Amino acid sequence: MGWLKQSDTQGSSWTVSELTAYIRELFDIDFRLREVEIQGEISNFSRARSGHLYFTLKDEGAQLKCVMWRSAADRLRFDPGDGDAVVARGRIGVYEASGVYQLYADGMEPAGRGNLALEFERLKAQLDSEGLFDPDHKQPIPALPQKIGIVTSADAAALQDI
Predict the structure, then answer these.
(1) Is 2 exposed, middle or buried (0-12, 13-18, 19+ CB in 10 A)?
(2) What is the pLDDT of residues 109-120, one digit of tens each?
(3) CATH of the domain at 45
């Protein structure tokens, strides 16, 4: 491994690229990150035209970006999607272009429905039992609304845009 040295032209500071490359090298040499199994719930699932899968694994406390190349995705024995609980296998690495660490998955097995999806389904069933999805309670959307609302933080640019 070519240990990265701080840029001579920058004194003691590094460029973003130098620091990110150094962090990537640290991830690459850590044997514990070369073969990991991660259990979580899939969210933000997408299948690119190339056949690659992009998704996030979540639990109640954290989330991890993941990518699965087409060669691995073609070997899956199930069709993954948002809300699925899974165990994904692969290596943890750094995608330097965005400075993000992620799981490069080479395998994945289903582990049932995720807790977040089950909670969403429970809430939906509760609201349905209260009649909140009943078509008789719905009002038509007007062609030209008389009032609009915005939900944003006090210092967001959206507030000044309106």
Answers:
(1) exposed
(2) 999 777 777 888
(3) 2.40.50.140
